[in-house]
Design a protein that fits this description.
CATH superfamily of the largest domain: ABC transporter type 1, transmembrane domain
Strand order of the largest sheet: 6-9-10-3-11-12
Low-confidence stretches: none
Shape: elongated
CATH architecture of the largest domain: Up-down Bundle
Helix content: 55-70%
CATH topology of the largest domain: ABC transporter transmembrane region fold
Length: 579
């Protein structure tokens, strides 16, 4: 899992090879400048004799100049390193968010419906942000730390291999500690990320449906559920923090061992070599001991951040790796449809264990008005999803004008189908932008005509800025008014086929009658599918389908079905006949 994520990250870094090269070069120069400082510091110390001889000011000036130049180069390229690394991190973050958002539009609705919306939004926004933070913080320190360790160890081997060997022998302790902590930290941060996503999804769901929560007085129950999820997140976070917090004290202990070993070995060499190993050389080695051990502290801290970043990245790449909808490449363009619809032996199920629709047959002539009624869960909305090709059938076929919908592009199919749902959706923008969403090239007259036909023009003109009023989540419009705008939006597109899924459920009876009249005029000569619970809206349909458990149990006109005295008549009496 971790290796796949790392390979994916490296693949995403390829387009920014120039920035990466600048980052690596800057890191080398920064490390080189820092490594040279102890060398010149040791030379400066040796310019001050232990005996009464004069100080070699000329050599001291050269040593101090070397320190100054080294620090200056290191500072300048440290800035370059930060700028280039920021450029990489935030460009990768932007790419990931763009790809994730674009991916959502390519995923089958089956995949989207199977995951909480809060979980998806957390992956696109929250996980991406934490991944970028980990990458930004970690990459520079990790690379410069490794370079510093390698560079310092190389110089110590060159200057005095015996002392370097002492340092080298203690190093595996740091590596063992880092590996142990890293292994446990990754799993802990992954659990923390998953638990946080679950809590975010729950909070998003409850806040988005707060009216329903209050209506059913579920506040206390939801608080208890949230407390349980929060407690689980607290436990996961504490576990992650515990393992990550052990890195610093462990590495500091190892660092102290290295420093003590260098001081002891160096002091013995000063005493035993008779001046061959000077105090300045010991000073240099003590500086190098600090420089050598410090990156282990930083790397161990970076590893913690990296584990969190990798856990977040794993969720993002899991989303990006979801199977997309089948491509429309090479498929036919449907063109302007006549409106003939045929379903032949259709089989479909959301759950493979439980079949919903089986051997469903239906032939609809152009211009027919077909009503679909039945109890909740009988498959009415599923039929609509299959007609729109939001879902593909498991068996059989759905055809429009004799063409299987799987052989034509989704865009051309959906241009021929207007859809008004029970749940209204309006984007943040003006009334005009919402109405013209499906037909941006329409004229002002066409837009106003559609609004009048949908009985929406009157209340639109009463808004503060009329058609230029900006709509948002605040209660500018009632649910019924929002529904009228959605109906006007479809009317403006004038598709040859129309699907109304409880389209007038949020409209009062008087307005509903007016809208039905407008629909009757608009859809004359066009194929129309009406999904309804209120049977008053389907009495004039050319064909009424009564569904139950994914099957058509009755079909016919309103009068024919009443005469049969079957399921439809029972539904009708339940709504219109007093007990």
């Amino acid at each position: 899992m971790k290796k796949r994520v790392l390979r994916a990250i490296l693949r995403d870094l390829r387009p920014y090879g120039a920035y990466l090269a600048i980052t690596l070069l800057s890191a080398v120069i920064v490390v080189a400048g820092q490594i040279l400082v102890p060398y010149f510091a040791g030379k400066a110390v040796d310019c001050i004799p232990l005996s009464g001889r004069e100080v070699d000011f000329s050599a001291l000036r050269r040593a101090l100049l070397g320190i100054g130049i080294s620090l200056a180069f290191s500072a300048v390229f440290q800035w370059v390193l930060g700028v280039s690394n920021n450029a990489i991190a935030y460009r990768v973050l932007s790419d990931l968010r763009t790809r994730s958002f674009c991916k959502l539009s390519k995923l089958p609705l089956r995949t989207i419906d199977s995951r909480p919306f809060g979980d998806i939004s957390n992956a696109v926004v929250g996980d991406a942000e934490q991944f970028a933070d980990g990458l930004l913080l970690g990459f520079t320190q990790l690379f410069t730390g490794v370079l510093t360790i390698a560079g310092v160890l190389g110089i110590m081997l060159f200057l005095r291999w015996e002392i370097a060997l002492v340092v080298f022998c203690i190093t595996p302790l740091s590596l063992f500690a880092a590996r142990f902590i890293s292994k446990h930290t990754y799993g802990a941060f992954r659990r923390q990320t998953e638990t946080r996503a679950d809590e975010t999804a729950f909070a998003d769901e409850m806040i988005g449906n707060l009216k329903t929560v209050k209506a059913f007085t579920r506040e206390e129950q939801n608080e208890r559920i949230f407390e349980e999820k929060n407690a689980a997140l607290q436990k996961a976070s504490l576990t992650a923090v515990f393992f990550s917090s052990t890195t610093n004290p462990v590495t500091r202990f190892v660092n102290a061992l290295v420093y003590a070993a260098v001081a002891l070995a160096g002091g013995l060499f000063v005493l035993s070599t008779g001046g061959m190993f000077s105090v300045g050389s010991l000073t240099t080695f003590l500086f190098y001991a600090n420089q050598y051990t410090k990156p282990f502290n930083e790397i161990s801290e970076v590893v913690t951040e990296f584990q969190n970043a990798l856990a977040c990245a794993g969720r993002i790449y899991a989303l990006l790796g979801e199977e997309e909808e089948s491509s429309d490449e090479g498929l036919l363009e449907l063109g302007h449809a006549e409106g003939a619809v045929s379903l032949d032996k259709v089989r479909f199920s959301y759950d493979p264990e439980r079949e919903l629709i089986k051997d469903f047959d239906l032939d609809v002539r152009p211009g027919m008005r077909v009503a679909i009624v039945g109890p909740t869960g009988c498959g009415k909305t599923t039929l609509v999803n299959l007609l729109m090709r939001f879902y593909d059938v498991d068996g059989g076929s759905v055809s429009v004008d004799g063409k299987d919908v799987r052989t034509v592009t989704r865009a051309s199919l959906r241009r021929n189908l207007g859809m008004v749902l029970q749940d209204t959706w309006l984007k943040t923008g003006t009334v005009r932008e919402n109405l013209c969403m499906g037909n941006p090239d329409c004229t002002e007259e066409e837009m106003v005509e559609a609004a009048k036909a949908a009985k929406a023009h009157a209340f639109i003109t009463r808004l503060p800025k009329g058609y230029d009023t900006v709509l948002s989540r605040e209660g500018v419009l009632s649910e019924g008014q929002k529904q009228l705008l959605c109906i006007a939006r479809v009317m403006l597109c004038r598709p040859p086929m129309l699907i109304l899924d409880e389209a007038t459920s949020n409209i009062d009876t008087r307005t509903e009658k007016l809208v039905q009249e407008a629909f009757a005029a608009l859809m004359r000569g066009r194929t129309c599918f009406v999904v309804a619970h209120r049977l008053s809206t389907v009495e004039n349909a050319d064909l009424i389908l009564v569904m139950d458990s994914g099957k058509i149990v009755e079909r016919g006109t309103h009068l024919e079905l009443l005469e049969k005295n079957g399921a439809y008549a029972e539904l009708y009496r339940a709504q219109f006949v007093s007990p």
